Amino acid sequence: MPKTLENMKLAIQETLDQLLMERLIPFKLTAHKVHAHGLDEFSVPFYDSRIHSVTFSLKVGKTFSEVVRAAVIDRVGRMTRSRAA
Q: Are 14 and 63 in contact (CB under 8 A)?
């Protein structure tokens, strides 16, 4: 796991870029900051009108990238499902 919030931001952006390349998210997202909420919960604001932010908690047995990927895919899925309804 990245040790600083700045390194986390870079790792999150790399994950976001991979998700876009793999076409698992329909648009580019940019991680502008990382906010820590306690020891293992974080939020990332995107400043995007479609998705404002994502929140995730680190989990034992999961890599940092796996947790971020799952949180972003879930958040984008909720956004697209709500638009379809």
A: no
| Cα–Cα distance for residue pair 37/43, rounded to 1 Å | 8
Report whether 9 contacts 34 (CB < 8 A): yes
pTM, rounded to two decimals:
0.88
Q: How many Å is the maximal CA-CA distance in the chain?
A: 40
Joined tokens for residue 62: 């999961």
Local mean pLDDT, 10-residue blocks, the chain (85 residues) = 87 97 95 92 93 93 95 90 66
Cα separation, 1 vs 7, whole angstroms:
9
